[in-house]
Specification:
With 238 residues, the protein is α+β, with helices and mostly antiparallel strands. It has ten helices and four strands; from the N terminus they run βαβααββααααααα. It has two domains: 78 residues, 3-Layer(aba) Sandwich (Glutaredoxin); 129 residues, Glutathione S-transferase Yfyf (Class Pi), Chain A, domain 2 (Up-down Bundle), CATH 1.20.1050. 55% of the residues lie in helices and 6% in strands. A four-stranded mixed sheet has the order 2-1-3-4. Helix 1 runs parallel beside helix 4, helix 5 packs antiparallel against helix 6 and helix 7 packs across helix 9. It is globular. The N and C termini lie far apart (47 Å). 37% of the residues are buried.
C-alpha cells in the first residue's frame, strides 16, 4: 500500500484510457489524486516532459513514490497485485492480464475507426476512409471481440477471471459503455448475442464500491474528443 495517495496523470477533458484506471482506483477504495483534473493539461505535458529514467510514452501514468508506471494494462496489473482488485494466483493473474490486453486491442481499433489514416489529421479529412473502417469494425471486429468475452463468461462466469469482480470486469464494463456511446445501433443489434457480457455490465454498474463515483461529476462523460466518438454516419445495425 502506498503511504501517500497515488498521482494519476491523464487528460482532464476525456475519459479515454485513464478511465479504466480510475474505475479500478475507485472500486478498490485506493487513494489517488487526479492531477490533470486539478491542474490542467499544460501541467500534464510539463510533468511528462520532466520525467527522466522511467519516462512514460503517453498518459495515463501513475506515480508510485519515486516510480512512474505507464500503460493502462500495466498500471492495472500493479493495482491488482497491491490492492486486491486483481487475481493473486499466477495463472488467474496472467489470464486477467491477457484479457486486459485484449480489451486494449479493441479500444485501439475503436479509436482507429474515426482516425484510420493519421492520428494527427482531423476526422473530416478522412471521412471516406473512416466509413470503410467503420463498416469492417461493425461487421467483423465488434462481433469477434465481444463474442470472445461472451465465450469466456460462458466458460467461467459470472466474472471474467475469478470468483469476484476484478479490474478486468470493470474494464469490460467501460468498453461496453464506450461502444454503446459510439455505436448505439450496432450494439443494440448485437445485444441478443451478448447476454452474459451485458449482465456483467449491469452487475458492475450496481457495485456498491462504484456507486458514489458513477453518480458523481468526477465520472467524465463520453464526448467527441475521446477514444469513443459517436458519428451517426459511422454507426449501423450491421
Amino acid at each position: 500500500m502506498a503511504d501517500e495517495p497515488y498521482d494519476l496523470w491523464y487528460w482532464p477533458e476525456i475519459p479515454g484510457r485513464g478511465e479504466f484506471v480510475r474505475l479500478a482506483l475507485e472500486a478498490g477504495g485506493i487513494a489517488y489524486r487526479d492531477r490533470a483534473r486539478e491542474e490542467g493539461s499544460e501541467a500534464l505535458v510539463k510533468d511528462m516532459r520532466a520525467r527522466l529514467g522511467e519516462r512514460p510514452f503517453a498518459p495515463p501514468y501513475l506515480l508510485i513514490g519515486d516510480h512512474c508506471l505507464a500503460q493502462t494494462a500495466n498500471i492495472l496489473l500493479y493495482l491488482g497485485d497491491h490492492h486486491g482488485v486483481g487475481l493473486s494466483r499466477p495463472y488467474p493473474r496472467c489470464f486477467a492480464h491477457q484479457l486486459q490486453l485484449t480489451i486494449a486491442d479493441i479500444v485501439a481499433e475503436a479509436h482507429n475507426v474515426h482516425h484510420p489514416v493519421a492520428m494527427s489529421a482531423y476526422y473530416h479529412d478522412q471521412k471516406a476512409e473512416a466509413a470503410r473502417a467503420a463498416k469492417s469494425f461493425r461487421a467483423e471486429r465488434m462481433p469477434k471481440f465481444l463474442g470472445y468475452f461472451e465465450a469466456v463468461l460462458s466458460d467461467r462466469g459470472p466474472w471474467l477471471a475469478g470468483e469476484r469482480w476484478s479490474y478486468v470486469d470493470l474494464s469490460l464494463f467501460q468498453l461496453i459503455e464506450g461502444l454503446r456511446y459510439a455505436f448505439p445501433r450496432r450494439m443494440k443489434a448485437l445485444a441478443p448475442t451478448l447476454p452474459l457480457s451485458l449482465a456483467l455490465r449491469d452487475r458492475v454498474a450496481k457495485l456498491p464500491e462504484l456507486a458514489d463515483y458513477l453518480s458523481s461529476e468526477r465520472r467524465i462523460p463520453f464526448n467527441q474528443d475521446g477514444i469513443f466518438r459517436h458519428y451517426p454516419e459511422l454507426d449501423g445495425e450491421k
